[in-house]
Amino acid sequence: MPAIFALNSATQIERRHRATVVITGSHGGLYPAYLAAKAGVLGVSFNDAGMGKDAAGIASLAFLDRLGMPAVTVNHLSARIADGADIARRGVVSHVNPAAAAFGCAIGQPIMEASVLMRAATPRKIKAPAYDEARSRLRAEAGEPEIWAIDSAALMASDDRGRIMITGSHGGLLAGRPDHIIKGPPLAAFFNDAGIGLDEAGVRRLPALDEMGVIGATVTAASARIGDARSAWQTGVLSRLNRLAREAGGGEGDTLRDFVERLLQSPGKR
Fold first, then answer.
1. Please, where are the H alpha helices in the chain?
2. Residue 170: is its pLDDT beyond 80?
3. How far is residue 46's CA from residue 8's CA, in Å, rounded to a whole number?
4. pTM of the entire structure?
5. What percent of the chain shows pLDDT beyond 70?
6. Is the CATH number 3.40.140 carried by domain 4-118?
7. How open is the CA angle 202-204-208, to the nearest 5 degrees?
């Protein structure tokens, strides 16, 4: 029978996971779905990230159903986002797509039970639709840090040193371990709180950013579509801030854009 793998992030799906079932710690937005489709897994699960604005936390389900791939999400209050082992152990299914329902997957099942059912799917060659540009520059003014939008924090690069990075990613740490995703480091980095979730896993990256000297905050999942950095920039409202963000004058309820403008006017930030 096909194997079942538990991964902390959909960005960890590799060629060896083709034709297997993968439990991921990623949110159920479009970018993780694209990665699963591109890899050709049999079936996949994500964290529903509290669903959030426009139900973006489960957007993966319809996307993958159109490709005939079974997919489910687990309730963000049942297991920690970004922790594949915890999700495999405690995750409870919150939503299923029709392709998964055809194999008996249902709301309320333990995720391992649903994963076993998805092993019955037939391996197929899937051509994943092209994903729109996931990395784009929002603003570049002389004398200011550049502002960039990236749909996944995994797209951050060493070139982003000193920039302001708006991400579509959740604000969790992979399995709660030290942060190896933030590169540069940037001046500031912003994330989606993914509904905050069990053990406040959706915001656990913020103290780690303090240790790296990076201003960090999350926007509420209800204010911006998770997985969509431009949505965070356009409508994001801050929910949690690290110490450095507070020292820079930020507070819960501020819009992300207002806080960034405040940062740009701060001495030493321009």
1. 30-39, 59-65, 84-90, 98-101, 111-118, 205-212, 229-235, 243-247, 256-265
2. yes
3. 10
4. 0.93
5. 97
6. yes
7. 145
| Phi/psi-derived region of residue 234, left when phi > 0, alpha when psi is between -120 and 50, beta in every other case | alpha
Measured CA to CA, the distance from residue 73 to residue 93 in angstroms comes to 6
Write down the pLDDT at residue 128.
76
Q: Evaluate whether 56 touches 228 at the Cβ level (below 8 Å).
A: yes
**What percentage of the chain carries pLDDT values higher than 90?**
86
User: Residues with Cβ < 8 Å from 267, sequence gap 6 or more?
Assistant: none
* pLDDT of 40 higher than 70: yes
Structural domain spans, the chain: 4-118, 135-265
Q: Which of 3, 7, 33, 34 is nearest to 18 (CA)?
A: 3
Tokens at 239, concatenated: 């929910």
In 108-229, the DSSP E strands lie at: 135-139, 147-150, 164-170, 188-192, 215-219
Q: Are 110 and 88 in contact (CB under 8 A)?
A: no
